[in-house]
Amino acid sequence: MTSDRLIAPLEIAIEVLAARGRDHGDCVELHERISQLWSAYLQTVVEPHQVAALMALLKIARSEFNAANEDNFVDLAGYGAIYAELLKIDRRTGPSARKTHLRDTESPESEEQL
């Protein structure tokens, strides 16, 4: 596979992200709002970066059904970029930060709070 074929979906993803920003607003604010709604509906905390990860998984599932639909791969690249941005904004919510946080809070008192 040539590098041009690999780069083309990424270039399209950049254009799509810009268009979605115009249509739906800032992606960070949108994922924060979605996380609030999903958290309320699921009655468990869903972080903004998890919204992006779950949307990426949706695109992966759809691509397994129809690999010919290039839009899924373009959107997957976009959600990957959003995921990375959300982790940069608040590193406290990232997967590695959670492991560190859990180790720091392991004590009899914190176990009672869980």
Which parts are unreliable, with pLDDT below 50 for 5 consecutive residues or more? Answer: 98-114
> How do the SSEs run, as a string of H and E?
HHHHHH
Average pLDDT level: 82
Find the structural class using helix and strand composition. mainly alpha
Strand-residue proportion: under 5%
N→C terminal distance: 50 Å
Question: Given the structure, what is the number of helices?
Answer: 6
State Rg: 17 Å
Largest sheet: none
Tell me the helix content. Answer: over 70%
Number of domains: 1
Number of beta strands: 0
Global geometry:
globular
Question: What's the SSE blueprint?
Answer:
Layout: H1 3-24, H2 27-42, H3 48-65, H4 70-89, H5 95-105, H6 108-113
Helix pairs in contact: 1-4, 2-3, 3-4
Compact description:
The protein has 114 residues and is an all-alpha fold. The chain has 6 helices and no strands.
Describe the structure.
This protein has 114 residues and is mostly helical. It has one domain. It is built from 6 helices and no strands. The longest helix has 22 residues. It is globular, with a radius of gyration of 17 Å. It starts with a helix and ends with a helix. The C terminus is likely disordered.
Kindly list the characteristics that best describe this protein.
114 residues, mainly alpha, 6 helices, disordered C terminus
